[in-house]
């Protein structure tokens, strides 16, 4: 199968043009290495079975030898030999800061104490996730998210999606893993996410820092996260869920340790709260919203199937929100974007607040069915009204009003409501 273009391609090239080295981080199997290979002119993989022992010995004695090769030189899974980080930074300095020397890929974060230098000014960082619907060629791409930000007159009316609810359920269950797109059968496509989960629970959770962790405990924690996906569930509730199975014993310290490891593996990716000053700070909920790198991880952790989810569309609505977040992150990754949520004690909430580096932002609701659109629009308009009221009362530091109000749906047609709210099917979005 030919390489499918990724939004990360442009981001990687821009960083190579600006920095001596680029670090690509993200969950394993999301396509980091393949994307890096499109730009690299030489490569070394520290997990090469035939060469690993020799590479580790070289890294321990003279790591600079591993950096010799045509540039950009790709060092795949560099975290297996953290000394590589300092060697790359030093080599960038020796070469006078010439851009585009190295690409590093990593599937987990490394303890900063194992490197001497931060890499600031020499090593740029970028993140990747599994493929969006546009990258997997399932979204029609008829509505550009960035064009919505850049062009107030952008007409989206009548733009169409080709994906049914059944298609969206399958895509979420399969996930955006590149390997799933080349699998020969639908059963095989669904197995990729399940195999990913199995690998995380049985191997990666312990390998990341050499601390032995229990496979069953890991699986139960991920299942609890999946049950509470896209919610503000408290850790105490999730811990009770884990121990309530009576299959394992688990303290809060142990729970936190496992979650921290899963975050380092980029499996768990919680959403932070957006806490503007439009209401009293005491009225704003600031706990994290539970999330994953890809909706398929939640589906696999629940032991669900596309068939079972079709009878549990309320549950799928939460999973759909995660798919929306994954795709929104992809479509704005070159904008240094930040995703959050809003929820106050009066239960006024917005599923996603999407912030760009230049200060522009969108308030976004993720609603699977058309019956939820009216409620979603009401929430968006109320938050905007609160901001407007705040600005009327605040004389010095006014708050920027949202640049876009969007409802992302599982429906077929995009349109703009008379109140300005944009209704956009997820499967017609692109960057």
Radius of gyration: 22 Å
Please state the structural category. alpha/beta
What integer is the average pLDDT? Answer: 93
Strand arrangement, major sheet:
7-8-9-10-11-13-12
H/E series: HEHEHEHEEEHHHHHHHEHHHEEEHEEEE
Structural domain tally: 2
Which stretches are poorly predicted, pLDDT < 50 over at least 5 residues? none
Largest β sheet strand count, sense and barrel closure: 7 strands, mixed
Describe the structure.
Helices cover 40% and strands 14% of the residues. The protein folds into two domains: 121 residues, Rossmann fold (3-Layer(aba) Sandwich); 288 residues, no CATH class. Strands 7-8-9-10-11-13-12 form a seven-stranded mixed sheet, with helices on both faces. The chain has a five-stranded parallel sheet with strand order 2-3-4-1-5, with helices on both faces. The chain is globular and about 65 Å long. The mean pLDDT is 93. The chain is α/β, with parallel strands linked by helices. The protein has 15 helices and 14 strands.
């Amino acid at each position: 199968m030919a390489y499918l273009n990724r939004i990360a391609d442009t981001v990687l090239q821009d960083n190579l043009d600006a920095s001596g080295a680029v670090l690509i981080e993200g969950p394993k199997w999301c396509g980091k290495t393949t994307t890096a290979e499109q730009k690299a002119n030489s490569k070394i993989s520290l997990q090469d079975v035939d060469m690993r022992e020799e590479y580790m010995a070289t890294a321990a004695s003279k790591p600079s030898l591993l950096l010799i090769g045509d540039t950009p030189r790709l060092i795949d899974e560099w975290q297996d030999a953290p000394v590589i980080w300092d060697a790359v930074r030093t080599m960038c300095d020796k070469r006078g800061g010439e851009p585009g020397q190295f690409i590093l890929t990593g599937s987990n974060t490394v303890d900063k104490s194992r490197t001497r230098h931060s890499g600031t000014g020499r090593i740029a960082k970028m993140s990747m996730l599994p493929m969006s619907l546009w990258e997997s060629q399932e979204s029609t791409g008829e509505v550009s998210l960035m064009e919505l930000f850049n062009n107030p007159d952008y007409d989206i009316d009548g733009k169409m999606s080709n994906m049914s609810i059944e298609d969206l359920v399958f895509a979420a269950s399969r996930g955006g893993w590149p390997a799933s797109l080349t699998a020969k059968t639908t059963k095989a496509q669904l197995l990729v996410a399940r195999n990913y989960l199995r690998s995380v629970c049985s191997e990666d959770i312990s390998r990341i820092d050499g601390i032995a962790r229990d496979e069953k405990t890991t699986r139960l924690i991920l299942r609890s996260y999946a049950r509470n996906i896209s919610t503000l569930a408290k850790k105490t509730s999730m811990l009770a869920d884990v121990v309530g199975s009576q299959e394992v014993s688990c303290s809060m310290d142990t729970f936190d340790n496992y979650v921290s490891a899963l975050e380092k593996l980029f499996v768990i990716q919680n959403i932070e709260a957006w806490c503007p000053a439009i209401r009293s700070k005491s009225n704003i909920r600031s706990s994290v919203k539970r999330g994953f790198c890809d909706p398929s991880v939640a589906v696999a952790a629940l032991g669900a199937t596309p068939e079972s989810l079709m009878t549990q569309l309320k549950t799928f609505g939460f999973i759909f929100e995660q798919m929306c977040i994954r795709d929104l992150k992809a479509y704005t990754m070159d904008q240094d974007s930040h995703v959050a949520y809003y929820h106050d004690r009066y239960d006024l909430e917005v599923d996603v607040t999407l912030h760009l580096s230049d200060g522009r932002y969108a308030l976004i609701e993720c609603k699977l069915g058309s019956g939820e659109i009216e409620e979603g629009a009401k929430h968006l308009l109320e938050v905007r009204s609160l901001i407007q009221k705040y600005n009327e009362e605040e004389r010095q530091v006014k708050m920027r009003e949202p640049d876009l109000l969007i409802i992302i749906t599982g429906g077929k047609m995009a349109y703009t409501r008379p109140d300005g709210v944009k209704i956009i099917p997820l499967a017609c979005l692109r960057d």
